[in-house]
Every structure is written in structure tokens, then in C-alpha cells.
Design goal:
This protein has 2 domains: 124 residues, Methyltransferase, Cobalt-precorrin-4 Transmethylase, Domain 2, CATH 3.30.950; 79 residues, Orthogonal Bundle (Arc Repressor Mutant, subunit A). β4 and β5 form a beta hairpin. The protein has 207 residues and is of the alpha+beta class.
Length: 207
């Protein structure tokens, strides 16, 4: 009980989300996959957004989570669970570990597989640069000893426009969009450029 209270006092954040109950397996799959694609996280089911414990039937909620993790996440997500009791009310805790192989996709209401991440207490769509970065890490391109003029010019553009959106970099760089994407992915993987993702948007700057 003290542990549950301590969790609730933290409020919702990047690694914790409260759910009154699970009504939509596809919608909760989005949250599960976002946790797996970021730093992992904890769902507390039976808790309102304001932290009030309302309680649930753990078996029913567990089956909803299990269905969401297995049917609406690709690849399927494994999770651990605990049941906490607050007086006569029960809360289901669901724990998601960060995925070793990213991205984990979830199926939306239109039958489209999409990729989500977690930022603060928000679940956001992952952009193509982040998805490309996950793929890039598998290939592990080595950082060159020196950059060519095109690469140096693009680095200068990022510096001048920072914090810059992807669309602004497309306009200002005079490079094909695919080339801009690939350079950003490489520069981020080499720790030269930071990608700041929030509810307000995604911005790029030199580190």
C-alpha cells in the first residue's frame, strides 16, 4: 500500500501512466508500445488522472492488457504485473521493459501499424528520423575523419537555423529530402546533432 501511494505521488510522467480502466485494447497498445520504444514504464490501472484510486477487477483488466500486448503490438510485448490494494479497492500495475529491438508498432483504429514513443506524460508518434536512427544503430556507420563540403554546409545550416524543424532544414539546405534525412540520422548517431522531441514538435540543434 505504501508502495502504491509512493507511485501515485510521482504523478504521470515519462515512465508512468494512470488509467481509470481499459476500454480500448488498440488504444492501450499505443501506450504499451510507446513505453517499450522509450525507457519502459508502469501503468497503474484503477487510478484516475488526478491520482484518485477508484479500483478495478484485475482479471478483466489483465486480459485486456494481454490482448493488447499480443494482438495489437508488433512484435508482441511481454510484461509483468502486480495487484495492489487500497482499502477495498484493487489496482493493477503493469510493467513494460524497454524493447531490445525497436521499433515496436501498434495497430490503430484504421488498421495501420504506427510507431509511438513517450515524452514526459505524453504518447507521441515517432518521426521517420527516429525510426531511421534505430535502424542506423544496427548498421553502425563509423564517424569519418573529416567531412566533405556538403556535410559541413549542412552542419552550418543546422547551427544557423537552430532550433530547426525538419521542414525548415528541407527548405534551407537545398538538398534532396532523402539526403537531409540520411545526414540527420548520421549526425545524431555520431552525437553531433541533438533531436529534441516534445508535444510542441521535433527540433534539431548542434550539440
Amino acid at each position: 500500500m505504501d508502495t502504491l501511494k509512493a507511485y501515485i505521488r510521482e504523478g504521470e510522467h515519462q515512465q508512468q501512466d494512470f488509467k481509470f480502466r481499459i476500454d480500448d485494447a488498440k488504444k492501450i497498445a499505443r501506450t504499451l508500445s510507446a513505453f517499450a520504444n522509450t525507457d519502459g514504464g508502469r501503468l497503474l490501472i484503477g487510478v484516475k488522472d488526478n491520482g484518485k484510486v477508484v479500483g478495478i477487477h484485475p482479471e478483466e483488466e489483465f486480459h485486456m492488457i494481454q490482448g493488447a500486448a499480443e494482438m495489437y503490438c508488433k512484435p508482441a510485448i511481454s510484461f509483468e504485473s502486480n495487484v495492489w490494494q487500497d482499502k477495498h479497492k484493487l489496482v493493477l500495475e503493469v510493467l513494460i521493459e524497454p524493447a531490445d529491438e525497436k521499433p515496436i508498432k501498434s495497430l490503430d483504429e484504421n488498421g495501420v501499424w504506427k510507431t509511438y514513443i513517450r515524452r514526459d506524460d505524453h504518447t507521441l508518434l515517432a518521426n521517420k528520423i527516429l525510426i531511421g536512427l534505430w535502424k542506423q544503430k544496427k548498421r553502425n556507420h563509423a564517424k569519418p575523419e573529416k567531412f566533405d563540403e556538403e556535410e559541413l554546409s549542412f552542419l552550418r545550416t543546422i547551427k544557423e537555423e537552430a532550433p530547426a524543424t525538419l521542414s525548415r532544414l528541407y527548405r534551407k539546405s537545398d538538398l534532396p529530402k532523402k539526403r537531409v534525412d540520411n545526414l540527420l540520422i548520421l549526425f545524431i548517431s555520431w552525437d553531433l546533432v541533438a533531436m529534441d522531441i516534445s508535444e510542441e514538435g521535433t527540433f534539431y540543434r548542434l550539440k
